[in-house]
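Standup notes
- DV: blocked on the single-chain target, sequence here:
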Amino acid sequence: MPDDERARRIAAGLSDRETQNLDRWGYPYVFEDFRFHMTLTGRLPPERRDDVLALLRQSFGRRCSDGPLTVDRLGLFKQDDSRARFRVLCHVPLNEAR
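- DV (later): unblocked, structure below
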């Protein structure tokens, strides 16, 4: 990763272990430090965040209702640089437990 990208991530307040993960794996949040997340937008100006959050809640509410959400596949995505769109490298269906 470019030096400026590493410096930007560290300046965001990474712990020592997260910095070690960044240097070793290219991402600070792996193994014990992993947090599930979904990237839904780029950076938003503060004045737009409430409106976008309301829109996302409404959209997900229609699609997910109050019931369980079935995860039936995993996807691997790649972003060539911080301004590029993510692209799907592959997706793999999950089999039901037997």
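- Follow-up: The chain has one domain: 3-71.
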